[in-house]
Amino acid sequence: MPAVEETRLAGFATAEAAGGFVAALLDTSVQCSRLELLSPAASTACGGAEAWSVAIAIGSVAEAVRAQMSVVDALVARGSGQTRPAPADVWSRYGAAMTAGDLGLRVGTLPSEVSRAAREAIATLGAAAAVGACATAGVLDVRASGVGVAEAEAAIRRLRASVAPTGGSVVIQAAPRALRERVDPWGPIEPGALALMTAVKRQFDPAGVLNPGRFVGGL
Question: Domain extents for the chain?
Fold first, then answer.
């Protein structure tokens, strides 16, 4: 455990501005223990402003944390954002927000496409949806409540089409049964990858008795 760990929330007017800050921060020597892009709803749940935000956690000795946070503050100001200290329980709040709601999606995309994918998720599911993204890994969690089956189906198909050109994916992690019956939870699988997984499955389960049909591509 680091001697000191500090988390700040940086709010921005747009997802693009938040994404620009992330790109600039990754081009510095600052070592973040966590760097998460938050939609306005997720930011509010974490104690931040109702704005596109970035949660920045840095852990080290006190002097190093202060020095690195000064770089963070300068970059936030350059991007016309505002920084505030995060609540002590910010990561517990974040975890709760990313497991709330009856619809949960896991979106994978390029790190450079995170802000665009987050914006697309809000455009398809509405401003009340909570989006939290690991900015360095290109992984987004999307949570929403009260979305009709037809509306959710359309949103998932739109999101999948949006991230497909860069090899992205959208996996349904939580959803009502009616939606799971209409939409493949895993989504399209690259043929080569599916062939490899099929071969491995046949090698270790030649009789096809181990949870048949529960994995990607009906494996």
Answer: 4-93, 99-182, 189-219
The topology (CATH level 3) of 99-182 is Alpha-Beta Plaits (3.30.70)
pTM assigned to the model: 0.88
Residue-wise pLDDT tens for the chain (219 aa)?
A: 888 999 999 999 999 999 999 999 999 999 999 999 999 999 999 999 999 999 999 999 999 999 999 999 999 999 999 999 999 999 999 999 999 999 999 999 999 999 999 999 999 999 999 999 999 999 999 999 999 999 999 999 999 999 999 999 999 999 999 999 999 998 777 767 767 777 887 788 787 777 776 676 665
What single string gives the DSSP state of each residue in 59-127?
EE-HHHHHHHHHHHHHHHHHTT-EEEEPPTTHHHHHHHHTT-SSEEEEEE--GGGHHHHHHHHHHHH-T
Q: Which CATH architecture has domain 4-93?
A: 2-Layer Sandwich (3.30)
Q: Do domains 4-93 and 99-182 have the same CATH topology?
A: yes
